Amino acid sequence: MIQYNLQQKFFLLLLALVTLAFIYILLPYSGAIFWGVVLAILFSSLHRRILRETKHKPTLAALITLLLIIVMVILPLSLITASLVKQAAAVYEMINSGQINFGAYFLSIMKALPQWMVNLLERFELTDLASLQQKLSEGAAQVSQTVARQAIAIGSKTFDFLVGLFVMLYLLFFLLRDGQSLATRIKHAFPLGSKYKQRLFNNFTTVIRATVKGNVLVAMAQGALGGLIFWFLGVEGPLLWAVVMAFLSLLPAVGAAIVWAPVAIYFLVTGAIWQGVVLIAFGVIVIGLVDNVLRPLLVGKDTKMPDYLVLLSTIGGMALFGLNGFVIGPVIAALFLACWDLFVSTEEFQLH
C-alpha cells in the first residue's frame, strides 16, 4: 500500500481543490465545451484527412476543418431554427385567431366515435365540452404567458448564446489542432495501466461517435419523412412537426410515433379514411423502418449495448442533462459496462 508523507498529502489536497475550482469556473459554458469536444471527436477523421492534404500544417488543417463544420452543421441548423420559429409563430397565431379550433376537433371526434366508447368517456367525465374548452382556454393562457416569458428570455440571452457559440468554435479549433497531444497527456495522467486506459478511451470515443452520428441521422431521417408526409396530407406546420418528430426520435422505440399516431387516429375518426390509412402505413413501414433498421446498425452495433440499455440511458440522460443527455447517458452506460467488464475479466482487480 502506498504511504504519503505530509507534503504529498497537502499537494494532493491542493490538486483536488484547484481541479474542483477550475471545473466550477467552466460550468457556465459547460454545454459549449461539451459540444466542442463532441464535434472534435466526430470530425477527427476528416481533420486527419485534411491534415494529410495540407502536408501536415496543423493550424491550416484545423482552420479548414472548422470552416467546413460551420458550413455543414452550424449554418443549416441556424436556417432550420429561423424557419421553425417563423412557422411556430404562424401556428400560434392560428390558434389564437380560431383558425385552429380544438373544440371543433373534439366535437368531430365525438360524433365519429361509437356509442360504447362515448359511454366509456362519459364515465370518466371526458365528454364535457364546456369543461374541456375552459381547460383549453386556461392552457392557452398559460402557453401565452410561457411564450412571452421565453421570448423575453431568448432576447436577454442572445449575447450569452453568441458567447457560448464563440467559446465552442474557439475551443473546437484548438482541439482539432492540438487534440492528439492533449489526449496523450490526459491518458498519461490517468493512474491505470496503458492497456486499460486505451480500452476505456477507445470505448469513450466510439460511443460518442456512434451515439451522435447514429441518433442524429435517425432523427433527421424520421423528422424529414414525417414532415414530408404531413405536408402531403395537408397538416398545418409540417416543418414544426418535422422538428418535433426529429427531437422525439432521439428516444428509441417510441420516438416520432408520439406525433404521427394521434394525427392518424384523428384522420380516421373524422372520416378522412385514406389520409389516416396512408399516415399509419407510412409511419409504420417507412418511419418505423428507419428506427428499427438504422438505429441498431448505427448505435447498438458500435456501442455493443442492447437496445433496452440504449433507451434507458438516453431517457435518463435527457432527464438529468437536457438535450446533452442523449450523448451523456449512453456514454456513461457504455463506460459503466466497460469498467465492470475490466473488473470482472482482469486478474489484478480481483479480491482474494
Overview of the structural elements:
With 352 residues, the protein is mostly helical. It has two domains: 29-100 and 130-189, no CATH class; 192-345. 84% of the residues lie in helices and 0% in strands. The protein contains 14 helices and no strands. The two termini are 16 Å apart.
Task: Give short descriptive properties of this protein.
single chain; about 350 residues; mainly alpha; 2 domains; elongated
Give a quick rundown of the structure.
The chain has 352 residues and is mainly α. It has 14 helices and no strands.
Helix content: over 70%
Backbone CA Rg: 26 Å
Distance between the termini: 16 Å
- Mean pLDDT, to the nearest integer, reads 76
Poorly predicted regions are none
**Order of helical and strand elements:** HHHHHHHHHHHHHH
Q: Sheet with the most strands?
A: none
Q: In one word, what is the shape?
A: elongated
Topology of this structure?
Blueprint: H1 6-26, H2 30-42, H3 44-53, H4 58-97, H5 102-112, H6 115-123, H7 129-156, H8 158-189, H9 194-233, H10 238-248, H11 257-269, H12 273-303, H13 307-321, H14 325-345
Helix pairs in contact: 2-8, 3-4, 4-8, 5-7, 9-10, 9-12, 9-14, 10-11, 11-12, 13-14
